[in-house]
Amino acid sequence: RLGLPFMHGAWGTISMLAFGTIDNPVARWYNCVVATIASCAVVAACFHCFGAAWWSRALAVSISLAFMMWTGSVHPPGAAAVMACMDISGFQSLGLWYVAYPTLFGSLFI
Questions:
Q1: On the CB side of 39, how many CA atoms lie within 13 Å of its CA?
Q2: Which of the two ends of the chain, N or C, has the fewest CB atoms closer than 10 A to its terminal CB?
Q3: Could you read off the pLDDT of 2-33 as tens digits, one per residue?
């Protein structure tokens, strides 16, 4: 009804990690939730301040990766969430709500 996408490209990679590589450190629940929330907050801020320019995408991914490494929560789908927000206008319109929907919801659901 609202025209917002429910599916998220990062969900495929999260599912693969969660169910296909159970013993992999990047598949830990902590990594999934912390990295996804942080990455989505970073991309929402970068998009709000700088738009969807190529360098804004690179900045968002770089900051997200630095945060993941600093907190020990490296989770590759976090970078996919960054790119999805920069590429899909339905996600861009969510602003900071992108942190909760669909990314946090999807991470907790999976």
A1: 33
A2: N
A3: 565 556 667 777 777 778 887 888 878 888 88
Question: What is the C-alpha separation between 82 and 80, in angstroms, rounded?
Answer: 5
Residues 30-52: pLDDT tens digits? 888 898 889 989 988 999 999 98
Give how far Cα 91 sits from Cα of 5, 14, 81, Å. 7, 18, 10
Q: How far apart are CA 106 and CA 51, in angstroms?
A: 25
Residue 89: its H or E element:
helix 89-92
> What own/partner pairs with CB < 8 Å and gap ≥ 24 does 81-85 have?
81/8, 81/10, 81/36, 81/39, 81/40, 81/43, 82/39, 82/40, 82/42, 82/43, 82/57, 83/9, 83/57, 84/8, 84/9, 84/10, 85/40, 85/43, 85/44, 85/47
